[in-house]
Amino acid sequence: MDQTRQAVHQSTQRSAHKSTRGSAQGSAQGSASPTFAELFTPKLVTVWREGYHLPQFKADFMAGLTVAIVALPLSMAIAIASGVTPERGLFTAIVGGFIISAFGGSRFQIGGPAGAFIVLVAATVQREGVDGLLLATMMAGVFLLAIGYLRLGTYIKFIPYPVTVGFTAGIAIIIFSGQIVELFGLKLAGPEPGPLLPKLMAIGQAAGTVNISATLVAVLTIVTIVAVKRWRPGWPGMLIAVGLASLVVALLALPAETIGTRYGGIPRSLPFPTLPTLTMGKIVAVLPDAIAFALLGAIESLLSAVVADGMTGRRHRSNCELVAQGFANIASALFGGMCVTGTIARTATNVRAGAHGPVSGMLHSLFLLVFMLVAAPLASYIPLAALAGVLAVVCWNMFEKQAFATLLRASRGDALVLMATFLIVVFRDLTEGIVVGFALGSILFIDRMAKSIAVEADLVQDDVADSSGRAYDASEASDVDTVVYRISGAFFFGAASTVGGVLDRIADQRKNFILDCSAVPFFDSTAANVIESAAHKARRAGVRFIISGASPQIRRTLINHGVKRPLVTYAASISDARAQLTVPPAVDATQ
């Protein structure tokens, strides 16, 4: 979520026909479930089996270098904004990014620290310290492993679009509010509050401490990034902006804080892997954070993989990707890193740079490691205002302005879900925002599906469609003792009261009642119970009840709920049902 996601739906639409074609081919070959190896074989193995030679390596080498240049300033900026030292962002991109590319289910996924985690990580660090963050990250990795191996990756992608837009916009607002202090070089009277309103009040009270030098550095950074993107879009704008700002501060000796003055620089090597403090009290304390890390990481990584699929026409393996995310988070915590996930902006950069496969992501991590080994002292000169400027641009891109405005105009339901998610994320809590938004989206979906079902009289007395559109009139039927009704749409608990009310009124109006279910794709237990009640009522009234056109699955569901002889009989079509009526009930065709 560290970049705008307007490309998500465009990418999905571009690849929709390819995915549909692939699904149709798979269905033609059979309905057998994929094997464990098919689900969890890393894409690196797939690429290697296809044949990997020097031309492919050259493409991956250049793509990996390009992504590393983008990831270098961004990883440090995200770490600082999260309340930890800048090297922890690099540890995350190096260790976690390498594992995600090596073992993931996407050819082009680039892993690293993501802007969406800034608020969650900062809150965890403030409450439980860095050791609590490392433990929560490791636990999130275990949860992601469980989600992947239980094959739940498909369900995570069911988050409604208004929820993702509202959530991302809320995160952008919160992240930007956290950069105001560094953008203007403010000196707060005390620790910076976490909630938005108290934070803004504290910033307002410190308005008289603006550092002009820091402000100019931030403006220079933002202007440079925007200018490079407009006139030289192929150049690494963020790295150029940070480098230029660092040079200006060093040459002019501006009084602006740098990584060196605040943190003393960054180390020149990776730390030795160590376990965080493991106590039952600590585990319980960070459990909610670990769950939030796992949920957000899964959503972000799979969304990023979908974008990559849309840009390339490839298909990722969701559960394999989540397993790799799990191992990456565990390893990142062992090496002192923070939460790691697939990142949309860096993944898209990887694709545009001509990457062939996962080797580019692995090389991106190795290039970042080389930077730490060789050029770590240069990081001391990077102004914090410049990194804040980088994140300000990221926040601008995260807030999907066009998508936000479109959803506000789309419908009242979508606008409600969007604004509820956005406002709760900004003023309450990220997890609450997702849960409330998802719940509202689900309720609206249920309501729309319930309204889509129709129970109507069959327009004619056989299976031939009547183009006149006339309502059913028993006086015109060849058999006035028979009524035929058709259910259209998914019949589930949301539509039970509507359908049940109609069936209660019509089940005892004639001697024979045919209920056509050929246009019903799905029945649930509540729907089966409604049909059972109607069948019992019809039997008490002496009405013969026949169900026609039910698929084998629907028929099985109904029979399991007691909807069988002698309550009802089944027919393949309305014509077959009418044929049954010519036979005495005692010798009806079997179900």
From TrEMBL:
Comp. bias intervals (Polar residues): 1-14
Low complexity biased stretches: 22-33
PROSITE patterns: STAS
GO biological process terms held by the UniProt record: transmembrane transport
Subcellular location: Membrane
Membrane topology: Multi-pass membrane protein
Name of a matching Pfam family: STAS
PANTHER family in the record: SULFATE TRANSPORTER
The protein, known as: SulP family inorganic anion transporter
